[in-house]
Amino acid sequence: MSTSREADVVAPSSDSPLTDAEVRRLREDFPILQTVVHGHPLVYLDSGATSQRPLAVLDAEREFATSLNAAVHRGAHTLAAEATEVFEDARATVARFIGADEGEIVWTSNATEAINLVAYAISNASLGRGGAAAEGLRLREGDEIVTTEMEHHANLIPWQELAARTGATLRVIPLDDHGALRLDVAAELIGERTRLVAFTHVSNVLGIINPVEQLVAMAHRVGALVVLDACQSAPHLPLDVRALDVDFAVLSGHKMLGPTGVGALYGRRALLEAMPPFLTGGSMITTVTTTEAEYLPPPQRFEAGTQRVSQVVALAAAIDYLTAVGMPRIAAHEAAFGARLVDGLAAIDGVRVLGAGIELPRVGLASFDVDGIHSHDVGQFLDDRGIAVRVGHHCAQPLHRRLGITSSTRASTYLYNTEAEVDAVIDGVQGAIDFFRRGA
Ligand SMILES: Cc1ncc(COP(=O)(O)O)c(C=O)c1O
User: Fold this and answer.
1) What is the pTM of this model?
2) Which strand ranges, in their side-by-side order, compose the sheet holding 351-353?
């Protein structure tokens, strides 16, 4: 679905940051970036919440709806067959993008559903569902699930609920005073009782890239499964689930130039084969009687009901777009923004950048607290200048609590942002401080 216009932008073999000319050209693909807010050109720095969509993605969704729309894996007519083909091609596209096989990708509504899918499949296995094949997935009292204090609620609450349903214990890797994971404590927490370790690749608040290899090694040493929350990494960094050796990974389509309503779960083939389903109903069965049902192999076993085909097709177009620009180049472009944001904001008197003292690589995202000014007021002031940022706890209350605050302001960049936009938010924060202090 990539267009020749995209190809102009790219030099995929290179890993140098995008040039100003390339970003200018690429921005033309995103109609929403022409929006004017309160008389100012929109400065969109909220891609960590949801990213904007290029024409190629909008066109793919529309094209599907206008020429191919049909339910997939059902029906013998031409449209149904063609819709099924593009649906399965999209699965292959996602698989290639993250280094998996296509049979290892399950479509979900978002990353939250993908994590819940794993948690509910394990609790169903713990109830005896899935028979002998699922024996290895069962959790019992005394077993432990490990997650971290840094997680988005989507990668915390499903594990709290799984622990409550199975009698397992949830243990949490704490953060140090800067907000980094205490790997020394992790090494003690992850032990013989640990059955599963779930953590985020990139923090949606701190922007740091966690040391996945070390945590995977700790988990696998004791035979525990690893669930990687790749929501904030897959859109911004080259991602290879095989190289990282994780057992599951979750993605959210709307954070990687795709539409809302589609996410994906990666699961090692053997694990998906062993797992009982989460949602049940049509499209995931072979034989059904009034008393029981036999299920299809993965991935269909986990895709009950009519599927979100147009969103899946549009997500594949988004991945084609990202691939055409080049993930290493996107990563380099944003790493420069990450450093600029942290340095520029930290230099302002009264601003505390969360995680600034952590010596880990980071993506182009930074959250900060402004002394004496609520994040909602900072956000409102920036919005008056056309600058869109996220305010609040960013679905990470434990992390904020650990850092002694209840909310923060977050600026998050993507491939379409410019250095001038990064400087605009830094300048805007100084403006907010001047404005509120003057008024105080
Ligand atoms: C790190 C992380 N995990 C999980 C999620 C949940 O994604 P979704 O709401 O698309 O399910 C988000 C979204 O903000 C996130 O940033």
Assistant:
1) 0.96
2) 351-353, 365-370, 408-412, 390-392
